[in-house]
Amino acid sequence: MAMEHLKTALLWVLILTSVGLTYSIWTFQPDFSPLDSSGTIESPDIGVEKSHVDLLIPESITIHENEERYWLEPEEERFTSQMEALLDVEFERVVDYPRSGVPVLNQPARAIDYKFHSPIPGSTINELFDFGEETIAITSVDRIYITRSTTSANGEVIARFISTEDEEIYQAETNLNNDQLVAMYEGERDHMYEARGVSFDEENLYGDYAYLPVEPLTMRKLTYSWNSISEQDMRAVMFSDPDLVQEYPRGPTTRMYSDGSRFLEVTRRSSGNVMKFEHQRTGTFDENETETHVLEDALDFINLRGGWTDHYGVDAWHHGFIDSVTYRMHVDGLPVLGGSANQDLYYTKEITRAGNEINKYERPLFRLDGQFNQDEPIALPPLDEMMSYLEEMEDFDTDSIEGIRFGYFMDSSTSSFMIFSPDWFIKRGNWQRFSDIEDEYEERLLEEEEEEEEEDNDEEMEEES
Question: Which string of b and e fits 350-383 if b means at least 16 CB within 10 Å?
């Protein structure tokens, strides 16, 4: 009997303890104390956020004044100002225009011709430009032609949005008159150079050509100091939980960081570090899985993961089973089209998207710092001289030329500074420096001359013997 009473008492103790604990849980009020500012977690300060306007840089701006044409000298602030003026224009009465309305090479006109190296998606055009309540149904735009109307007696100005790749053209009326059109470029007279049109595909109705300055130009050879971007900062922004990331050395110059599904590879070099990030995706995906353009997703991705260092512009994009975007560094208004490192990654950023997810990101891990004052002027050969040289070269097919433009060659062979040398660049698949083409050809001619001299000497020796 005593044992039964003991069991009953213990049971009541357990019941009362359980009730007490349950009540404590129900009525518990946690005592939170706010974090002070020193405890706030912030993203590393790497670069700045940018918008489409910052990255959509015209390849060229050509001024047409009836029979005369002028190449506007590229410079970051100058081209930015021109783009801002263009974005301020109001457009209305957008219509699909006949293909015959594409401006042809050297066509007399009063116009400003904006040419873009990479097409601007139609969705971005509608976002950036003011069409009132209308939209423009064009797929993409690589050329915007603002010109005085030839059918209006009031000096009205119209705009033509042209897609070379998709063979589309749309026309819109603007809120400009002829005087306002001229005012858009009148203040740049000192930077306008007489230009000549060069065609790269005479059968292309949509104008695969460029206007280039006729007279020789003197450009600046630029020297910059630079500093590295911390790979630990990039690790912090590329992984959702950096505490789960493990480091795996891969040789003396390469480090790999991973959380199991994401991989960040950093290659350390004296001429600047570079990184490759990959997020492995499981399962299958459909190329039509996302409705947003890859330019939108790429811009958001970079802005959220360190932002932008130095000045870049959209160089190319591709839509397909795998989408991609390439951004190219610009210095003093001109693109960097080659480098001593023989690797584009030193002056480009590349984003790859599979389905609706960014799965690859590659970029340099350095930023240009101060610019030295000892800029050296470089006199480039005139257009006609360069073209004549190419035409006279043996085994050089000028019909294979896809494009000609000015650009910079980046010499990163020293560890303390980077040198940017201006030059003509010729595109035949890839961009090539004219000076490299010239040097290789001259070297080949010299070798051929030496071989001929050796053959002549051998013949003389045989005759003497």
Answer: bbbbbbeebbbbbbbbbbbeeeeeeeeeeebbeb
SS (H, E, C) 239-254: CCCHHHCEEEECCCCE
3-state secondary structure of 136: coil
Element (H, E) at 112: strand 109-121
User: What is the rounded CA–CA span in Å between residue 340 and residue 231?
Assistant: 23
Q: What is the three-class DSSP state of 414?
A: coil
Of 217 and 464, the structure prediction assigns the larger pLDDT to 217
pLDDT in tens, 165-197: 888 999 999 999 999 999 999 999 999 999 999
Parallel/antiparallel/unpaired status of strands 273-279 and 262-267: antiparallel
Q: pLDDT at position 7, please? A: 61
**Whether the predicted pLDDT of 341 surpasses 90:** no
CA pseudo-torsion sign 438, 444, 447, 449: negative
The helix (run of H) or strand (run of E) holding residue 304 is: helix 294-304
Q: What is the pLDDT of residues 447-456, one digit of tens each?
A: 877 777 776 6
**pLDDT surpasses 50 at 461:** yes
The mean pLDDT of the chain is 87
Instruction: Give rounded-to-5 percent helix, strand, coil for the chain.
Output: 30, 40, 30
Integer distance in angstroms from the first to the last C-alpha of the chain? 138
Shortest CA distance to 91 belongs to which of 161, 155, 173? Answer: 173
Instruction: Please give the model's pTM, rounded to 2 decimal places.
Output: 0.85
Which pLDDT score, from 0 to 100, does residue 41 have? 42
In the numeric block, the tokens 């797929």 are attached to 139
- Report which residue type is found at 195: A
Distance CA 110, CA 10 (A): 102
Give the type of residue at 77: E
- The count of C-alpha atoms lying within 13 angstroms of the C-alpha of 111, restricted to the half-sphere facing its C-beta, is 23
How far is 357 from 10, CA to CA, in rounded Å?
Answer: 61
In the DSSP assignment, the letter for residue 399 is G
Predicted confidence (pLDDT) at residue 273 exceeds the cutoff of 50: yes
Question: 229 — phi, psi (to 5°)?
Answer: -90, 130
Q: How far apart are CA 63 and CA 69, in angstroms?
A: 6
